[in-house]
Specification:
There is one protein chain. By secondary structure, the protein is mainly beta. It is built from two helices and 23 strands. Strands 1, 3, 5, 9, 11, 12, 14 and 15 form an eight-stranded antiparallel sheet that branches. The two termini are about 50 Å apart. The relative contact order is 0.18.
Length: about 325
């Protein structure tokens, strides 16, 4: 028997308030990868009288460390092997295996972070005789593992896809395994996805990609699989990029998960060049015109903590057509 496992030790309706101040902005969150690895694995087993162990052309490399520095980390191997019946040396089975993985984890520093991986796995077992006395089994895989410290509750989503005979599994869970998201992508053009809210604390990330194992006694004696997965982490209340042509009038701010509010600041252009500004979020609406428009600096609207929301401001200029600006936010819990 030949075993070369790779080590996996590594370790997201009331009217609104009109204020003259600045909306509260959540303190940036920080997380750290405690440890992490990516690696490849090859395995074979042999049964049968006088059937020796697999003789491989090369060993499988050790795993490689990964951290959240945005650098791409790779690992791969490709090898051939033979199994020979010692009492009948013409009874030989040829083996071939390969696996590769490429992974990148962007910095986890309070904004969005992402882990992206892609990989492949192949194997074959082909007896030279029509009837071999040796039963040979082969399996190869590629994978990653990490432990991350999350200082705040974090939304996580996983998506994956794959092609061929095999599977891709990606998983993240909290320290007590109370919450997690998992994606499976398997078979020809398989896809999968999952999403969940993780509490603050340690989170464990794990993934493995492999072609289906093969056996010399089976009809199908070879398999191959390729796949990729992306894991996105975003802190609760995370706001998307601002969109719309009304940016020069209204600036949507951050969502505040302590006060369960979302705010937008009015610019000088809004006060001087707009006749009306309507701000909506979470089913609430504030309409500003006249003196209210010229005096207000910030609009703050209440939003339910458990709901995602979008803040939209519709601006009616004194001259020209209406324009809008909007920003979407994840739920706070």
């Amino acid at each position: 028997m030949d075993t070369t496992p790779w080590r996996l030790a590594l370790t997201t309706g009331a009217v609104g308030l009109l204020t003259l101040g600045v909306a509260l902005v959540p303190t940036p969150a920080h997380a750290a990868v405690t440890s992490g690895t990516v690696g490849v694995s090859g395995y074979s087993s042999v049964t049968g009288t006088d059937c020796g162990a697999t003789v491989w052309s090369s060993p499988v490399p050790s795993s490689v460390d990964i951290t959240d520095n945005g650098a791409t980390v790779t690992s791969s191997f490709s090898r051939t092997g033979t199994v020979t019946k010692s009492s009948a040396t013409t009874d030989v089975t040829d083996l071939a295996q390969s696996a590769s993985i490429s992974a990148k984890l962007t910095p986890i520093n309070g904004g969005p972070a992402a882990l992206t991986i892609s990989g492949s796995s192949t194997q074959s077992v082909v007896p030279r005789l029509s009837a071999s006395a040796c039963d040979v089994y082969a399996y190869s895989s590629a994978g990653f593992s990490a432990t991350v410290d999350l200082p705040t509750a974090t939304w996580v989503s996983i998506s994956g896809s794959g092609k061929g005979r095999g599977s891709l599994q990606a998983y993240i869970a909290s320290n007590d395994n109370a919450a997690g998201a998992i994606a499976y992508a398997f078979g020809e053009k398989g896809t999968g996805s999952g999403a969940s809210l993780l509490p603050a604390g340690k989170a464990y990330i794990y993934g493995i990609l492999s072609a289906s194992s093969v056996d010399s006694d089976d009809t199908i004696k070879s398999s191959s699989y390729t796949g990729s997965a992306t894991l996105d982490l975003k802190p609760v209340g995370y706001g998307s990029a601002v969109s719309g042509k009304g940016k020069k009038y209204v600036a949507p701010g951050e969502r505040n998960c302590t006060t369960n509010t979302v705010s937008a600041s009015l610019t000088k252009a809004a006060k001087k060049k707009a006749s009306k500004v309507v701000v909506t979020a979470g089913g609430h609406k504030v309409t500003l015109k006249g003196k209210k428009l010229t005096k207000a600096s910030t609009v703050t609207l209440p939003v339910a903590s458990t709901s995602a929301t979008t803040l939209t401001a519709t601006i009616t200029p004194k001259k020209g057509k209406k324009v809008t600006v909007s920003r979407s936010y994840l739920a706070c819990g």
